[in-house]
Design brief:
Elements lengths: L13 H11 L26 H9 L1 H4 L1
């Protein structure tokens, strides 16, 4: 995207987004059991978040608040 063009705000409202999700819910397959193994905190290291991803998440705060 050229620098002289501002990003456009989403035209979808939160209510519309929730409605779309509700329509799709019957189509989603839910696994009967999710097997997950805990990871020791000592094994988690070197996690980095690219600046563009951090900005994307920061811009989505209205959906998470």
């Amino acid at each position: 995207m050229p620098n002289n063009i501002a990003p456009r705000e989403s035209e979808t409202t939160l209510a519309e987004l929730r409605g779309d999700c509700a329509q799709m819910a019957p189509h989603w397959v839910v696994p009967t059991k999710v097997a997950s193994t805990p990871v020791a905190p000592s094994l988690i290291h070197g996690v980095t978040v690219p600046p563009a991803s951090a900005r994307l998440i920061d811009a989505m705060a209205e959906y998470g608040d």
